[in-house]
C-alpha cells in the first residue's frame, strides 16, 4: 500500500507479511546477482501480469490500462524486490513507458542502501524499435539512484547514442543475433541462458501480450517456474491485448494448451491473485 508516514520515502509501498507468506512458495529462494559462473542454465522464471475477467491485459494494443488495485500493485513491487531482473517486450516499453523499478520500502532508493533489492530491467527489442532518451522513465529513475540501468535484448546492435546512455547507467546490450528460430523470433531458452550468463538467477516476466502468449505455448511452457496472475473484477471487451496462446493439437485433435498445478487463490483487496506452477 502507498506509504503515508512522513519519515518514510514519500512514494514507497509496503506489502504486509500476512499476505506475502501466501506467495513465498512461488518465489525464488534468494536474490542478488551471482559473481560466480551460473549454476543453472537459466534463471528461475516467474510469469506475472494483471488481467481482466475477459483475459485482457489492456483495452487496446498500445494502450496502458490500469487493472490492479493498490494492494496488488504493492504485491507486484514486493515480487520485484524478490527477483534479480524484470522483463518486458518492446511493445510494453513503447506503450507504457514503464518505471521497471521497485518501490517497496527499504530497497535501494526507497530507504535502503545503494541499489539493494532493485531488479535489472530487461527489454526485448530485437529490431531496435524503442526510442529511449534520458527522459524515458526507467532511465530517469536509474539516474536518480531509484532503479538499475536497463539491459536491452537486441539483434541488430544499437546506435552509439543509445549504447552510451545505457552504459552510463551501468546497463547494456545482450546480442541475440545468432539465436533466431525459423520465424525470426528469438528463442526464449537462449534469451534466458544469456541472462544467466550475466549472473541473473531469477527473473519476473511481466508482459506484454505477445511475450506472455509465446511463453505459454508448449514450446516454452517448461521454462516457467511460477505463475502469479492478478485478476481484476472488470471486463475490458473485445479488441484488447488478450492472453490467449495459440491452439495445441495432438494427433490432429485440439487439446488444452496448458494447466497449472499447486494452485492457490489469494484475495487481495478487490482483486484475486492466482499462484501456480506449470503442470508439465
Ligand atoms: N496488464 C498487465 O499486467 C500488462 C503488463 C505488461 C504489458 N501490458 C500491456 O500489453 C501491451 C503490450 O503488449 P504487446 O503484445 O503489444 O507487446 P509486448 O509483448 O510487450 O512486446 C512484443 C514485442 O517484443 C518483441 N519480442 C517479444 N518476444 C520476442 C521474441 N521471442 N523474439 C523476438 N522479439 C520478441 C517483438 O518486437 P518486434 O515486433 O520489434 O520484433 C514483439 O513485437 C500494452 O498495451 C501494455 O499496456 C499489460
What is the topology?
Elements: H1 17-23, E1 44-51, E2 56-58, H2 70-81, E3 85-89, H3 90-96, E4 120-124, H4 137-143, E5 151-154, H5 160-168, E6 172-175, H6 188-197, E7 202-207, H7 209-215, E8 226-231, E9 241-242, E10 248-250, E11 253-255, E12 260-268, E13 271-278
Parallel strand pairs: 1-7, 1-8, 3-4, 3-7, 4-5, 5-6
Antiparallel strand pairs: 2-9, 8-13, 10-11, 12-13
The structure holds NADP nicotinamide-adenine-dinucleotide phosphate.
Can you walk through the features of this model?
The protein is α/β, with parallel strands linked by helices and 280 residues long. 21% of the residues lie in helices and 24% in strands. The chain is built from seven helices and 13 strands. The strands form three sheets. It has a nine-stranded mixed sheet, with helices on both faces. Strands 2-9 form a two-stranded antiparallel ribbon. Helix 5 (160-168) links the parallel strand 5 (151-154) and strand 6. Bound molecules: NADP nicotinamide-adenine-dinucleotide phosphate. NADP nicotinamide-adenine-dinucleotide phosphate binds at residues 49-50, 57-58, 61-64, 67, 88-92, 95-96, 124, 126-127, 129, 185-186, 188, 206-211, 214, 241.
CA radius of gyration? 18 Å
Q: Outline the biggest β-sheet.
A: 9 strands, mixed
The bound ligands are: NADP nicotinamide-adenine-dinucleotide phosphate
Element order, helices and strands?
HEEHEHEHEHEHEHEEEEEE
Mean pLDDT: 92
Output the number of helix runs: 7
Distance between the termini: 35 Å
Q: List the strand order in the largest sheet.
A: 6-5-4-3-7-1-8-13-12
| Strand elements, count | 13
Class from helix and strand fractions: alpha/beta
Amino acid at each position: 500500500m502507498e506509504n503515508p508516514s512522513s519519515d518514510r520515502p514519500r512514494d514507497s509501498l509496503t506489502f504486509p507479511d500476512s499476505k506475502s507468506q501466501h506467495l513465498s512458495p512461488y518465489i525464488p529462494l534468494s536474490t542478488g546477482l551471482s559473481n560466480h559462473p551460473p549454476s543453472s542454465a537459466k534463471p528461475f522464471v516467474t510469469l506475472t501480469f494483471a488481467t481482466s475477467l475477459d483475459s485482457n491485459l489492456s483495452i487496446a494494443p498500445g494502450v496502458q490500462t490500469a487493472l490492479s488495485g493498490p494492494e496488488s500493485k504493492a504485491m507486484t513491487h514486493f515480487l520485484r524486490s524478490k527477483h534479480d531482473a524484470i522483463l518486458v517486450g518492446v511493445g510494453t516499453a513503447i506503450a507504457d513507458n514503464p518505471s521497471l523499478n521497485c518501490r517497496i520500502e527499504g530497497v535501494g532508493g526507497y530507504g535502503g542502501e545503494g541499489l539493494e533489492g532493485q531488479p535489472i530491467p530487461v527489454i526485448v527489442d530485437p529490431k531496435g524499435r524503442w526510442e529511449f532518451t534520458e527522459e524515458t522513465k526507467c532511465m530517469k529513475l536509474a539516474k536518480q539512484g531509484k532503479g538499475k540501468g536497463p539491459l536491452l535484448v537486441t539483434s541488430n546492435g544499437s546506435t552509439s547514442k543509445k549504447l552510451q546512455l545505457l552504459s552510463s547507467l551501468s546497463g547494456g546490450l545482450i546480442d541475440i543475433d545468432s539465436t533466431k528460430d525459423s520465424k525470426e523470433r528469438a528463442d526464449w531458452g537462449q534469451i534466458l541462458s544469456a541472462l544467466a550468463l550475466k549472473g541473473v538467477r531469477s527473473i519476473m516476466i511481466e508482459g506484454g501480450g505477445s511475450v506472455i502468449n509465446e511463453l505459454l505455448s508448449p514450446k516454452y511452457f517448461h521454462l516457467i517456474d511460477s505463475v502469479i496472475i492478478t485478476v481484476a473484477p472488470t471486463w475490458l471487451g473485445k479488441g484488447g491485448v488478450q492472453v490467449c496462446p495459440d491452439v495445441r493439437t495432438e494427433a490432429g485433435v485440439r487439446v488444452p494448451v496448458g494447466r497449472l498445478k499447486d494452485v492457490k487463490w489469494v484475495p487481495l483487496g478487490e482483486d484475486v491473485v492466482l499462484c501456480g506452477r506449470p503442470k508439465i
